[in-house]
Amino acid sequence: MTALSKETIETVKATIPFLAENATQLTAHFYQRMFRENPEVKAYFNAAHQVSGSQQGALAASVCAFARNIETPENLATAVSLIANKHASLGVQPEHYPIVGKHLLASIDELLNPAPPEILKAWGEAYGFLAEVLIQQEKGIYAEQSWNGFRKFTLFRKEEESSVVTSFYLKPSDGGTVPAYLPGQYITVRIPTADGSTTMRNYSLSCHGCQHGLRISVKQEKAAHADQPDGYVSNYLHEQLALGDEVEVAPPCGDFVFDADAAEQAGTPVLLLSGGIGITPLLSMLHACKGKSFPVSFVHGAIDSKHHAFASEVTQLAQEHENISAHFRYSAPLDGDTPDSHGLFDREFLSQYLSPETEVYFCGPKPMMAHVLSVLDSIGHPADKVHYEFFGPAEELSKCPMHAV
């Protein structure tokens, strides 16, 4: 792989002030342009995230992070791995990268009206460098998958877990074996849309070692504002997918995973911390901890009992396995609710679960994750013992306000 020239690095660095001020405008223009001229790629993107602006914001933050780390791309290894896994889960191929590159450079040119040739040249080389890194990582992921592309699975069980979360149990329609996967990984579900195309979403596998099939547990996403759409796939699964129906599923992906054997060998304590629907990958990790000797604290935050999924399942796991303890914390309990505690995940609360050796895994709404990351940092918990799943550059979490889980 050809290293970037000093001239390219310096030119990209010189664009950082412009990006800091205009990155979101740039990425919004980019998506509009790309979808208009290459509508075949729309199936790879979440329409609701496009309307809310979160997709544009995530890309803007990624572009800024790449520019800031242009001299030290190794600093982006975690983000690159996350993006490569997301791409592989959706079936992104090398031929898609020139499409993105064309519209990214055209958007820079149109926004600067026009861009100096040296800027387009530098960003073209920089994008080509990053594309090659991602293509190579994705090639390795594809080589390790149980199958490539999409495979039909049949829904054989559907179970309501809370007022907004339902579990869907899937088995291969061809009668083949259920794929192996790591605790914390997700699958991609592809379903048809009204216009005759398809759309895809990632859903964490919410069990590990469970018999007969795969389980995903999906929150039904309703629009937060009148000008935003409901979550198309989550509502399709909740309201239309019936027992015996088929969906297309891509192989398990993701690098937010838990190695129970390594934890057993190390013998160090583990804290699994979740908020809201963020419970799904951590519940898979919890199942992998059954019967182990190391201590596991499973702490889950919910708004109230109506929004609390898997309360009985987690309680049963804690009762049946001596190494597991569970704690439920509600941010706004209803009359009659009896959580173990109420409030947010503040410093005093989290400190009781931490020693310098504790391995912490957490997932939940972005504001909750920002808060937890800030608390762990203020406590001085070792960074190499903090693990979480977040789509976008990690520094974006530090800019996010806290709210109830």
TrEMBL record:
**What cofactor does this chain's UniProt record say it requires?**
heme b
Q: Name the Enzyme Commission number(s) assigned to this protein.
A: 1.14.12.17
Q: Which ranges carry the FAD-binding FR-type domain? A: 148-259
Tell me where in this chain the Globin domain is found. Answer: 3-139
Which residues constitute the signal peptide according to the record?
none
User: Superkingdom of the source?
Assistant: Bacteria
Q: Could you tell me the keywords of this UniProt record?
A: Heme, Iron, Metal-binding, NAD, NADP, Oxygen transport, Transport
Q: Which Pfam families does the record match to this protein?
A: FAD_binding_6, Globin, NAD_binding_1
| Annotated catalysed reactions | 2 nitric oxide + NADPH + 2 O2 = 2 nitrate + NADP(+) + H(+); 2 nitric oxide + NADH + 2 O2 = 2 nitrate + NAD(+) + H(+)
User: Which CDD domains does the UniProt record give?
Assistant: FHb-globin (cd08922), flavohem_like_fad_nad_binding (cd06184)
* Keyword NADP on entry: yes
Is this entry keyworded Chaperone?
A: no
- Protein family per UniProt: In the C-terminal section; belongs to the flavoprotein pyridine nucleotide cytochrome reductase family.
Protein name, entry field:
nitric oxide dioxygenase
Write down the species: Rubritalea halochordaticola
- Which gene carries the instructions for this protein? hmp
